[in-house]
Specification:
Distance between the termini: 43 Å
Strand content: 5-15%
Strand order of the largest sheet: 2-1-5-4-3
Largest sheet: 5 strands, antiparallel
Number of helices: 13
Structural class: alpha+beta
């Protein structure tokens, strides 16, 4: 857990993931960590080891933009991870209000309900705030009130339902960090991460990597218990006016594909039972 030093924890976690031989250092010797030593990262970033120690220990949490960019390059961080590093080093925006209740606008609820393709709205912690009939027909985890990560990591049936479960869990943990950045000390986030870490070794290992990767679109390879295999594309859009705290997710199939036909059959069955 963060304990008020998200920047330091992130630097340590990412430093331990860098293989010394990949950045020009010999991997041998008596190493207490599997990744880079502090002095090695400091050398690569062009800063003093003492300054890096202060950053990791939380004694200096406001490094310059230049220092952050140098650390990002030394750690080999990508675009999203570098942006996360910068957000951790500055105060949260006034709109990043942890604990604030989420409400889906009436117009957005009406729009989602009017679609015949599965769709739902989630908050920053991946709680389902609103969903349509087809989303719930696709899987009960999309019912309002469910937490998607809790379901994916803790429900054994999800490993059967999702043919790419391992890849999805990797994206899910990294996506949670992206959605909640930079509010790593949000009590609701801390509680969710603690619960999942306690009950899922898979989540604990992924969370400790501190990977950051927002998921905007992707292919979902599903094994539906009624209609069989589905290859559904998903698109995620930030809901305007929520300052990135809500995402609209929409599933769709390639026109004329077997998945499109099976999705139509699912819609018909759902209409009969509703």
């Amino acid at each position: 857990m963060s304990g008020g030093n998200g920047l330091g924890q992130y630097l340590r976690a990412r430093r331990e993931l860098v293989r010394p031989e990949d950045v020009g250092f010999l991997p041998g010797g008596r190493r207490r960590v599997s990744g880079l030593r502090r002095e090695e990262l400091a050398m690569l970033a062009g800063i003093s080891t003492d300054y890096l120690v202060r950053l990791e220990q939380g004694r200096d949490q406001r490094p310059s933009e230049q220092v952050l960019d140098a650390l990002a390059r030394a750690l080999g961080l990508g675009e999203h991870a570098t942006a996360h590093l910068h957000r951790l080093a500055r105060p949260a925006d006034e709109h990043d209000l942890a604990g604030r209740p989420e409400h889906v606008s009436a117009s957005l609820r009406q729009l989602v309900d009017s679609w015949t393709t599965p769709a739902y709205v989630q908050d920053r912690l991946m709680n389902v705030l609103h969903s349509n009939t087809m989303a719930v027909a696709l899987s009960p985890i999309y019912a309002v009130g469910n937490n998607l990560l809790r379901s994916v990591f803790l429900d054994p049936e999800q490993q059967e339902f999702r043919r790419d479960w391992e890849a999805l869990t990797t994206v899910g943990a990294a996506g949670l960090r992206a959605m909640t950045s930079p509010n790593v000390d949000d009590p609701d986030l801390q509680a969710l991460a603690a619960e999942l870490s306690e009950h899922s070794e898979r989540f604990r290992d992924l969370w400790n990597r501190h990977d950051v990767q927002p998921r905007q679109s992707g292919l979902n390879r599903l094994n539906h218990p009624v209609v069989g295999h589905l290859n559904l594309y998903s698109e995620k859009f930030v809901v305007s006016g929520t300052y990135g705290r809500q995402l609209l997710a929409i599933f769709h199939a390639k026109p004329g594909s077997p998945t499109a036909e099976r999705l139509e059959r699912l819609a018909q069955q759902s209409a009969l039972t509703s």
